[in-house]
Design goal:
The protein has 334 residues and is of the alpha/beta class. The protein is built from 12 helices and 10 strands. The chain has helices spanning 66-71, 98-112, 124-135, 161-169, 176-184, 191-201, 207-213, 220-227, 237-245, 255-267, 287-293, 312-330; strands at residues 3-4, 22-27, 33-42, 48-52, 75-79, 89-90, 117-122, 140-146, 272-277, 303-305.
Length: 334
């Protein structure tokens, strides 16, 4: 597996990100290894809050939440998925599969031997993180899901995949404006089709642009910080591929694994909080399935993060962190 590693110099003097790096090695599945980066901040004996990011962000996304958690006495661990941040980046898009990401992060979790985990997951942090919860339920004390989901085919028959793929394939490569119009429109193809196609095929793809369109304004230096792990196109394979791995077609090979995960999640009786934002064009309404299906979501006072877009950690980081802390204190675990 051919990989690239972003030079350390790219991470110097990023605004609000003065955390020390930590590294682990996991098998790449082809006889080699991959280096995964994570932050590890706060009290070593404090309860663990595991923060998982999505696409195309990285652990920089949690820079506003980490100090709040640390001040409250918690230990915060925030990894960069393979292909993102300071973690190794395979250069071939075909190396990135949903199953590979789950395997890589499973090996990482086992290597750190984390226990009593409080998971905060957003975007792809949920798709991967909830698979980890299903596979290692005994390691998780509480879960917070924010602007994320775990697609399982939605009950569509496999034969529906062919017309859906034909619809997707027939779309022209969208602009960023097309992507946002797709999410906001009540007619035509699903907005996610445009997101997926833009990330996979647009020559104008930019990590900073993707972060910008799904939330509020962003200072130039912050936008540059999100772009820092990706000096050129060789480093962007994972960021471009992630949307194409979301199992939106009912014949996707990961649908059975996600369905099996949902069976475990439905019975997960430790506290689960939904903390979706009110301005996310991507996952609006996605909290309902968790409140309806997961045992641990019953009896929890769920929250809506007001004034935030898809990347609520960026838009309302301290407020999100305080909501998580309030949830944890309201639902102590023995």
């Amino acid at each position: 597996m051919e990989t690239v590693r972003t030079p350390d110099s790219r991470f110097e003097d990023l605004p609000g990100y003065d955390f020390a790096p930590n590294y682990s090695e996991v098998p790449d599945g082809e006889g080699g290894s991959l280096r995964i980066h994570h932050l590890d901040e706060g009290a070593g004996d404090g309860e663990v809050i595991l923060c998982l990011h999505g696409q195309p962000s990285w652990s920089y996304l949690y820079r506003k939440m980490i100090p709040v958690f640390v001040a409250a006495g918690y230990r915060v661990i925030a990894p960069d998925f393979v292909g993102f941040g300071r973690s190794d980046k395979p250069t071939e898009r075909d190396d990135y599969t949903f199953a590979n990401h789950v395997r890589w992060m499973s090996a990482w979790l086992e290597g750190l031997d984390l226990q009593g985990i409080n998971l905060f997951c957003q975007d792809w942090g949920g798709l991967i993180g909830l698979r980890l919860v299903a596979a290692y339920s005994e390691r998780f004390a509480r879960v917070v899901v924010a602007n994320t989901g775990l697609p399982d085919g939605g009950g569509l028959p496999p034969e529906a995949a062919k017309p859906m793929r034909e619809l997707y394939d027939g779309l022209p490569v969208p602009t960023l404006a097309d992507v946002m119009n797709g999410f906001q429109s009540q007619e035509g193809p699903p907005g996610f089709f445009f997101w997926r196609k833009y990330c996979a095929e647009s020559p104008e793809f930019s990590v900073g642009d993707v972060l910008q369109i799904t939330g509020g304004g962003m200072a130039d230096e912050v936008r540059a910080a999100y772009q820092a792990p990706f000096p050129d196109g060789r480093y962007e394979a994972g960021a471009r591929k992630f949307p194409s791995l979301v199992p939106i077609f009912p014949d996707d090979p990961e649908i059975p694994a996600n369905q099996a995960a949902w069976e475990v999640l439905a019975a997960f009786d430790r506290p689960l909080l939904t903390a979706f934002s009110d301005g996310d064009p991507v996952t609006r309404g996605g909290y309902q399935i968790f409140q309806d299906r997961v045992a641990g979501a019953k009896g929890v006072e769920h929250v809506t993060i007001e004034g935030a877009g898809h990347f609520l950690q960026e838009d309302k980081g301290p407020e999100v962190a305080e909501a998580v802390i309030a949830f944890m204190r309201a639902h102590p675990v023995g």
